[in-house]
């Protein structure tokens, strides 16, 4: 049951919280300096949820296969 990870590049401010929380899942784009998901489809990993929760602008969204939002939670 894989998850879908999305980073909204129009919201990202390049804080690096996600790269620190889940370095295997997020990386900086060399050109823009903003974060992007290494892969949109990932196996369940709490580090991805932590990254989404730690993003200061909530630019990261993690969904399950049914489309339910797993993180960030309100
Ligand atoms: S934590 Fe959010 S604002 Fe910071 S680099 Fe990641 S996506 Fe961008």
Automatic annotation (TrEMBL):
Residues 3-31 form the 4Fe-4S ferredoxin-type domain. Signal peptide: none annotated. The keyword Transport applies. Keywords: 3Fe-4S, Electron transport, Iron, Iron-sulfur, Metal-binding, Transport. Its cofactor is [3Fe-4S] cluster. Pfam families: Fer4_13. It comes from the Bacteria. Ferredoxins are iron-sulfur proteins that transfer electrons in a wide variety of metabolic reactions. This is Ferredoxin.
């Amino acid at each position: 049951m894989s998850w879908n990870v999305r980073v909204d590049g129009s919201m990202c401010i390049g804080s690096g919280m996600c790269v620190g929380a889940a370095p295997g899942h997020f990386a900086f784009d060399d050109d823009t300096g903003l974060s992007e998901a290494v892969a949109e489809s990932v196996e369940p990993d709490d580090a991805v949820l932590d990254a989404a929760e730690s993003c200061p602008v909530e630019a990261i969204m993690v969904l399950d296969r049914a489309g339910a939002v797993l993180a960030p939670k309100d």
